[in-house]
Amino acid sequence: MAIVVGAYALVLVLGILSAAYWIIGAGIRASRGLNAAANRGGRFPPGPPSWPIIGHLHLLLKLPHRRLAKLSKQYGPIMGLRLGSKRAVVVSSPALARDILVTQDKIFANRPVLGLHSSLFYGSENSIVFGNSGPQWRKLRKICTMEFLNAKRQQELEHVRRHEVAALLLRIRKAGAAAPIPVRTYVADMAANIINRLLQSQAVSLSSACGNDMSLQELVQVMEHEVFPMIGDVIPWLKCLDVMKKLRMKHLHQKLDSILDAAIDQRKQLMQTSTHPTELPHDFLQALLSKEVSHTTLSQESLTNQEIKGVLTDMLAGAIHSSSVSVEWAMVELLRNPRCMQKLKHEIDSMVSKGAQVTDADLFNLSYLKNVVKEVMRLHPIAPLAGPRITYEESKVGHFNIPSNTQVYINVWAIGRDPKVWDMETCFYPERFEACDVDVKGQHFELLPFGSGRRICPGMNLGLSIVEVTIASLVANFQWELPEGQTCETIDLAEKSTIVLSKATPLIALAKLPL
């Protein structure tokens, strides 16, 4: 019996060793083939040594923007990588970023197709964020811009944002000066209410109405942790290892779907019972449903149910936590730099009447506030590695050949801290923008928090307005202090990278009423 067991064990060990040998051999052969293909028509950008099978995937596991920025100092501003069986390049200079985002924008305008697009969301073809640049993408972006993100629409709905900022200030006052508050949580609640009201005229999510155990804001926050490529996206023959991740994504998608279905069904019932168009809310959901495909109407701007939910998801995911994370980083830097806090407070007090609420109109006169926001976005960009792109044909960037089907990443974080571009690159110094006209709107490639070119963030102006008004309101209405035991020097700046680059430990601060 022992002999039989030993024989079985020997066979099992030999089988495992054979499988490992085959897998490693296949990975090496794939790597050699990939490198040969990359260099077949020109020189591929240099990069660090890669591991068998996984290539450079290990570099993307934790705070990849920092690791890649460090490597770029050794291998140059354009660096070649191998992500499993996929080629990739990382760009870390303004000049090369301009070449990719503007000069050759058409070649680099597409997104890589990932499994999460269909497992977690509604497919890349129904998304502005993940979709390829083509007729379908242009249709969705045009509808979104015309119906939701244009300047006129934002001006019409400014009262919504003013109301929610006022509610935030009231909530902080009720918390009392003796109770430190989690800044990001408070601002995220406000941002979620703003976006919900702009989208569907309701500040409270419909999670309870459809039986979900979490709010829409909480669901979006959980989903952020899943927005990473699966193993099968980069090593197709290992896609079997994605089973559990796909199950988690499917579960989250069902929760999201039930929330959106409830909102859509509720609005359709209202549309059926209303007797006059003026009785219907004038919001983004109504605009989308007015374009829904029916048996009687079909035009170039018609939308399917999946397209409607895909666009709504883009707006929700792109707005709720990006605004709150930016405001939190701003408050962190202002608390670390009391001189900047006092200078900003003095500007607001001199430009805004005492007791009056900060409005969009006031922002034109608050130049130091704008400089503070620029400096925050330079040091703490929300998307440190701008959304990945993929080439649809061979191109040349700098002196290097970039084959077709190569993923491209712009290291916005590295560019924002490049000592060749910025003096005192690691210091928070808003005054640096007083002597230059650099802005964040995609025209200056040393500062790209929203990207540039045709894929620049469509919600940039709305996001900036929310962030600037919120920061100004918090600084104007409260005297901010750190809890006992913390000082300016001891504030933790550690980062946590999900879909947005947030502070690892949330900022807790005291908001005292000014004397």
Description:
- With 515 residues, this protein is α+β, with helices and mostly antiparallel strands.
- The chain has a single domain, classed as Cytochrome p450.
- It contains 18 helices and eleven strands.
- It has helices spanning 2-38, 64-75, 94-103, 116-119, 135-149, 151-156, 158-175, 183-200, 216-224, 231-234, 243-273, 284-289, 305-336, 338-351, 360-363, 367-379, 412-416, 460-477, and strands at residues 78-83, 86-91, 181-182, 385-390, 395-397, 400-402, 407-411, 479-481, 495-497, 501-503, 508-512.
- The strands form four sheets. A four-stranded mixed β-sheet has the order 1-2-7-4.
- Strand 5 and strand 6 (400-402) form a beta hairpin.
- The longest helix is centred in the N-terminal third of the chain and has 37 residues, at 2-38.
- It is globular, with a radius of gyration of 25 Å.
- Mean pLDDT is 87; it is low at 1-41 and 205-210.
Tell me, what's the shape?
globular
Tell me the structural class: alpha+beta
Mean pLDDT: 87
Q: How many whole angstroms does the radius of gyration measure?
A: 25 Å
| Total domain count | 1
SS element count, helices:
18
Query: What fraction, in percent, of the residue positions are helical?
Result: 40-55%
Query: What's the CATH architecture name?
Result: Orthogonal Bundle
In terms of DSSP E residues, the strand content is 5-15%
The strands making up the biggest β-sheet line up spatially as 1-2-7-4
What is the number of E strands?
11
Q: What distance separates the N and C termini?
A: 87 Å
Under CATH, the topology can be stated as Cytochrome p450
CATH class: Mainly Alpha
